[in-house]
Design goal:
By secondary structure, the protein is an alpha/beta fold. The chain has eleven helices and nine strands. The chain binds nicotinamide-adenine-dinucleotide.
């Protein structure tokens, strides 16, 4: 039976205009129009996370110590995009020692020039390394180097990105502002989300391998995240950590499979993991996308998401 004009109009009108639309209730994890800075981009974890980022439409500014290793990553990412029919996105490469504050500042300042002026508001900071040395034998220079990279490097990259955002305020009047208690106008960057890779080692002491400097550096990263989150909430910049347990990256898989010692180590580790296995890098994509997404995690800041197969429960 044909509908009358009045019936047509009624069926096109929402029954209750106060009912939210699907986009109001379901978060989006798309990152189109954004540039995400990925540090440690030539590493095992970053490789997988970068694949997820381009799949969500984000342009990438990849940072690591050497350009040749980044060029390999870019080639592989382009192949990944092509094979999966993902529209190509701009990927820029930056050689940079994360423990050198001046270098970090220079690179972060330069990134917009390679991305049509877009200032990065998303960070996935994975640069870091571990050393297994007995505490009583730890050489001071080695310990300082590790802390400079893992902990101070985390501060430098966040500082430089925040400075770029705040500098943009003076150039662009369109940036929204909110008035704080003292009546001062604060620029707001509700899309800004910095995700730092910590480690369960910032919460527990790994065994049997000795790694005191690494453990203290990651404990520092977790507390740095809370400090920055508290301080920069007034700008709308969210800062969070993901703390992985043991990850089976290409590198760790090789170490484990090529020596008896490696196999024994893996057995010892997995015995202590309630889920009974090491993580795959792809198992960190969900937490990363959640933390980067404005609509999913707008009320999450200063959080340390532990993704460790339950290791810290025991
Ligand atoms: N693999 C694990 O089991 C595990 C567990 C918990 C946490 N994490 C953390 O996850 C992150 C990534 O780990 P991964 O397994 O991919 O390691 P990885 O060694 O494969 O990658 C780390 C990357 O950081 C880069 N890097 C090191 N020093 C740097 C510096 N001074 N400046 C710039 N870049 C530098 C390296 O070149 C490398 O490409 C690290 O922060 C690590 O501590 C790893």
């Amino acid at each position: 039976m044909q509908k009358t004009m009045a019936q047509e109009v009624r069926s096109a009108t929402p029954l209750n205009p106060t009912i939210p639309s699907i986009t109001d209730v379901l978060p989006s994890f798309r990152l189109d129009g954004h540039v995400t800075i990925v540090t440690g981009a030539a590493g095992g974890l970053a490789h997988t996370l970068s694949q997820a980022l381009v799949s969500q439409g984000s342009e990438l500014a990849l940072m690591d110590l050497s350009l040749p290793s980044l060029e390999n990553v870019k080639t592989e990412l382009e192949l990944f995009q092509k094979q999966n029919n993902i529209p190509p996105v701009k990927i820029s490469l930056w050689a940079c020692d994360i423990s050198n504050a001046d270098e970090v500042e220079m690179v972060v300042k330069s990134i917009p020039s390679s991305h049509k002026g877009i200032v990065p508001q998303k960070l996935v900071h994975t640069a870091g390394f571990c050393q297994n040395i007995n505490a009583h034998e730890y050489d001071a220079e080695k310990a300082q180097k590790l802390v400079n990279v893992n902990l101070l490097g985390s501060l430098y990259i966040c500082q430089s990105m925040a400075r770029q955002l705040l500098a943009r305020r003076t150039r662009r009047k369109s940036i929204s502002e909110h008035i704080d208690e003292s009546g001062e106008a604060m620029p707001q960057f509700p899309e800004a989300s910095f995700v730092l890779i910590g480690s369960m080692s910032g919460l527990i002491v790994n065994t049997p391998q000795p790694q005191c400097a690494y453990n203290m550096s990651k404990a520092g990263v977790i507390h740095l995240v809370k400090s920055l989150a508290a301080e920069w909430a007034k700008f709308g910049i969210r800062v969070n950590a993901i703390s992985p347990g043991y990850i089976a990256t290409a590198l760790t898989k090789k170490v484990i499979s090529q020596s008896q010692e490696g196999a024994a180590l893996q057995k010892e580790w997995t015995n202590r993991i309630p889920l009974g296995r090491m993580a795959e890098p792809k198992e960190f994509i969900g937490s990363m996308l959640y933390l980067l997404s404005r609509s999913a995690s707008s009320y999450t800041t200063g959080e340390n998401m532990v993704v460790d197969g339950g290791y810290v429960c025991w």
